[in-house]
Structures are given as C-alpha cells and as structure tokens.
C-alpha cells in the first residue's frame, strides 16, 4: 500500500466489504500508510416494516456505522464510511414520504446527522445500481443529488449518473453552489419543513434547498435569498450579501 502511494501516486483508500474482517485490520492499514482520505464500505441491512418500506427509526443502522468508524480508529480522523443509512432513507423519502428526512431530534436521519465529518454520502454505486438490488428511483436521481450536494458529509458522485444520465450540467451547477458557499462535511443544517411533499432546509445560513412537488413555500425562503438552481421538484437558493457604501 505504501508502494502504491509513493511510486504510483495513490493518496487514499476505499476499503471493500469491511464486514468481512475486524475493524482493527482497517485501523492498522490507516495507521501504517497515513492516507489523505479513506472510506469503508459497511453495507448492513436496514429494518423494514410489514409494508416493505424502511422503518422510520434507523438509529441502530447509523450507530453501527459510527461504531465501526470509532473501532477502526477514525473518530474525528481521516477514516470515513459510506452513509448507507442516508441512501436508504433518502431513496424511500423521495417517493412522497419526505417526512422521513428529519429524525426525532430534528436532524438528518442518516450518519450525517450524528457524525457528518466521517460520512460519505452517495445516491448509487456500482453495486446498488444493478437490477433488482437497491437502486435509487431512476426518475428521482436528481433529487438525491440536490440533497447530498447541499448537505454535510462528503458527497460522492456516481460516474454513470454524471457521464451517461444527462445530469452532468445539473450536477456541475450544484457542485459549484456547494463550493461557492463553502459547504463542507461538517456544515450545519436547519430543517424548516419535512412533510410528505416538501423537504426544505437551510445550510450554514447561506443556502436554502428544497425537494418535493409542493410549490407554496409561504415565508420559508426569505427575500434576501436568490434562486441559484431549479429543476423538476427541486430548487436551491443562495443568500445575497448586502452592499454597503460609506460616504466620505
């Protein structure tokens, strides 16, 4: 691994199927190679109700991710985990159940709600996109990116979505909004609405985003925010800086 770093030029690692070996092994890899970035794939089954949908409370699922990160030595450090909790809840929520996107404490319900600095968010990957697996609803993929690219955590863009799904322009614009406003892995989130047809949140008091078909937002978007991006059932606004002048 150190040879891959020093001779080939790799700077980080993706640890596959970390359920298959002890967290101490990952800890040893990270400790002895000092990567700039490292992420583990811990894909556990979520709890589902009798209707086939995820249960509202997924604290146990995200706590297992946090426990692995802490056991593998990444609490507050370089090691992260793919936020499968957020993916599972988000892909269910966009089907008219956006109330799922706020937990009982008023925070995001995935790993980003309890350990955002060590969470890697994603919409799909090479495993979940396969037929009959765990794919995000194909007609709602853009809503997924509006969410993860405006929220804390480290968002991961799926190559096929970017290059082959006609989403390159939209994703590029959302990335630019994220960068322009300095949204990072530990940015703050204030959830203003989480209803069946509307999810609206304020990030770092700089950006407001919404997903869902509801159009009547009332006073949820103040007048000092300007529309920066819009698409089908989604929009993002940026806070406008006031210009002050001094007469001498």
Automatic annotation (TrEMBL):
Domain Alpha-amylase C-terminal beta-sheet: 179-239
Keyword Lyase: no
Domain of life: Eukaryota
Record-linked SUPFAM superfamilies: (Trans)glycosidases, Glycosyl hydrolase domain
EC identifiers of the protein: 3.2.1.1
The keyword Hydrolase is annotated on this UniProt entry: yes
Cofactor: Ca(2+)
Transmembrane segments annotated in the record for this chain: none
Catalytic activity as recorded in UniProt: Endohydrolysis of (1->4)-alpha-D-glucosidic linkages in polysaccharides containing three or more (1->4)-alpha-linked D-glucose units
Coiled coil start-end: none
Alphabetical keyword list: Carbohydrate metabolism, Glycosidase, Hydrolase
Enzyme class of the recorded protein, top EC level: hydrolase
Record-level GO BP terms: carbohydrate metabolic process
Signal peptide range in chain numbering: none
GO molecular function: alpha-amylase activity; calcium ion binding
Family: Belongs to the glycosyl hydrolase 13 family.
Record's protein name: alpha-amylase
């Amino acid at each position: 691994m150190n040879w891959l770093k020093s001779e080939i030029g790799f700077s980080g690692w993706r640890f596959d199927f970390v359920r298959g070996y002890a967290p101490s092994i990952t800890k040893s890899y990270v400790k002895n190679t000092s990567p700039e970035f490292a992420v583990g794939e811990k894909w556990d089954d979520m709890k589902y109700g009798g209707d086939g949908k995820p249960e509202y409370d997924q604290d146990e699922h995200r706590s297992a991710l946090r426990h692995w990160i802490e056991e593998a030595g990444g609490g507050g450090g370089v090691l992260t985990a793919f936020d499968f909790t957020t993916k599972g809840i988000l892909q269910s929520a966009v089907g008219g159940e956006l109330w799922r996107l706020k937990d009982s404490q008023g925070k995001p319900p995935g790993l980003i709600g309890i350990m955002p600095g060590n969470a890697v968010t994603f919409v799909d990957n090479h495993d979940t996109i396969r037929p009959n697996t765990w794919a995000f609803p194909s007609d709602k993929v853009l809503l997924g990116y509006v969410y993860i690219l405006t929220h804390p955590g480290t968002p991961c863009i799926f190559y096929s979505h970017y290059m082959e799904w006609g989403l390159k322009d939209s994703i590029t614009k959302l990335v630019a909004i994220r960068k322009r406003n300095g949204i990072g892995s530990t940015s703050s989130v204030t959830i203003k609405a989480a209803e069946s047809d509307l999810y609206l949140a304020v990030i770092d008091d700089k950006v407001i985003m919404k997903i869902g078909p509801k159009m009547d937002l009332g006073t949820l978007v103040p007048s000092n925010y300007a529309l920066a991006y819009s698409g089908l059932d989604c929009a993002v606004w940026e806070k406008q800086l006031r210009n002050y002048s001094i007469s001498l």
